[in-house]
Amino acid sequence: MTQHTVKAYGDELNQLTAEVARMGGLAEAQVADAVESVARRDVALARAVVERDARLDGLHREIEKKAIRLIALRQPVASDLRRTLAAMKLATDLERTGDLAKNIAKRALILAEGEPMQPLTRSIERMGKLVSTRLRDVLDAYAAAEVERAISVWNTDDEVDEHYNSLFR
Q1: 117, 115, 125, 114: which is closest to 37 by C-alpha?
Q2: Is the pLDDT of residue 26 over 90?
Q3: Does pTM top 0.70 for this prediction?
Q4: With the C-alpha atoms ordered 93, 145, 33, 166, is the resulting torsion angle positive or negative?
Q5: What mean pLDDT is reported for the chain?
Q6: Which of 16, 60, 82, 113 has the smallest C-beta neighbourhood within 10 Å, fewest atoms?
Q7: Is the Cα torsion angle 84, 88, 93, 97 positive or negative in sign?
Q8: CB proximity list for 64: less than 8 A, separation 6 or greater
Q9: 73-86 burial by CB neighbour count: b if 16+ within 10 A, else e?
Q10: Could you give the CA distance from residue 121 to residue 131 in angstroms, rounded to a whole number?
Q11: How far is CA 84 from CA 92, 98, 137, 163, in A?
Q12: Taking the CA atoms of the chain, what radius of gyration do you get in angstroms?
């Protein structure tokens, strides 16, 4: 993190990064809980995941507003602009992650009504754990500003894709 002449500017950038990390933690919990609601056929947990999605939506809007305000008032350049735009992009991706977790939870509600499908449930649970691990790793890389670590996570995405494809075969 770079030191800025205007302390408030540096504080705004750091706050934006911290808010994205906090949003990431919430998205990570959403994914883990959604997968667990499928695995355990837990209707209450699935409903909680659906209800909590609104919080992620609100955080996304707040981060976007703060980033736009920072761009308009501070006119960041170089690494500061990249940090600001990365925060906006990550917030959008994390909001989408929350939407997908909500969709999984909605499916868990439907699956809870039917007969148990143990092999399918175990496969979904394994894939969910892979996704949760990747999400945690990339959020840790973001918080620590470790580009190589983030690229490493990206390079392991094929494993999740392969698991997804085999699940549907």
Answers
A1: 125
A2: yes
A3: yes
A4: positive
A5: 92
A6: 113
A7: positive
A8: 88, 91, 92
A9: ebebeeebeebbeb
A10: 15
A11: 13, 21, 20, 33
A12: 18
What are the pLDDT digits (tens) for 76-106? 999 999 999 999 999 999 999 999 999 999 9
Q: Which amino acid appears at position 51 of this protein?
A: E
**What are the φ/ψ torsions at residue 75 (nearest 5 degrees)?**
45, 60
